[in-house]
Design goal:
The chain is an alpha+beta fold. It contains two helices and five strands. It is globular and about 50 Å long.
């Protein structure tokens, strides 16, 4: 059985925390390459669209998001409490779509065959 739900997202900017621990600022410096005096707050991923799909025991979430580096699709799979994520840059979405169409076509061309009982 397959179910799909869509939601639209809003933005949630993150700012520099007041009174934060010094090690938090040191971590920011190591990530951004900026000293704590010149550190500029980064904006979090902005959700643009989200689609939830349930296929058998798997829960898939397709999140279209945007950040300072551009737009991207985050595909998250949850199975029995485990989570796996794949990120596809927006520049590669059409190529990803073409590859997925080819896989779907191949699956249909092969017809019904024996299916795996592993649930993967």
């Amino acid at each position: 059985m397959m179910q799909a739900n869509e939601t639209a997202g809003g933005s949630m900017p993150l700012g520099r925390q007041q009174g934060g621990a010094a090690n938090t600022m040191d971590a920011a410096q190591s990530l951004t390459g900026c000293s704590t005096d010149t550190w500029v707050a980064r904006v979090a991923d902005v959700p643009l669209r989200s689609i939830h799909v349930r296929i058998e025991r798997k829960h898939l979430t397709l999140d279209l998001k945007e950040n300072s580096r551009g737009r991207f699709l985050r595909i998250t799979e949850e199975v029995n409490g485990r989570r796996n994520t794949v990120i596809v840059p927006a520049t590669g979405l059409e190529l990803f779509q073409e590859a997925l169409r080819n896989v779907i076509w191949s699956c249909k061309a092969l017809g019904k065959g024996s299916s795996s009982k592993r649930g993967t």
